[in-house]
Amino acid sequence: MPKKERKRLQVVISEEQDALLTRTAYELSSPERLISKSEVVRLAIEKIARELGEGEHLDEYRALLDDTPEEDEG
After folding, report:
1. pLDDT tens-digit map of 11-59
2. C-alpha span between 52 and 5 (Å, rounded)
3. Which alpha helices (H) appear in the chain, and where do they start and end?
4. 64 confidence band (pLDDT: 50, 70, 90)
5. DSSP annotation of 2
6. Helix, strand, or coil here: 58?
7. Which is nearest to 72 in space by CA: 13, 20, 8?
8. Which residues, 6+ apart, have CB-to-CB distance to 68 below 8 Å?
9. How far apart are CA 7 and CA 38, in angstroms?
10. Which has the closest alpha carbon to 26: 16, 14, 40, 15?
């Protein structure tokens, strides 16, 4: 079976966001399986997309984005 092609995305995050990613990856990991920060990001994307598709948390996400300093628009 051919390897699944993936797109790469580079984003700038704060030290606080990196710490949250690290902590979340650690909490999701188990002795049998270590979870990477990239996997946490992919999981978050899927979770947010699913919730928005169901009409959930839209205002909460917008409020969070409004409170986030815009470092990179592209």
Report:
1. 999 999 999 999 999 999 999 999 999 999 999 999 999 999 898 889 9
2. 26
3. 15-28, 37-53, 58-67
4. confident
5. P
6. helix
7. 13
8. none
9. 12
10. 40
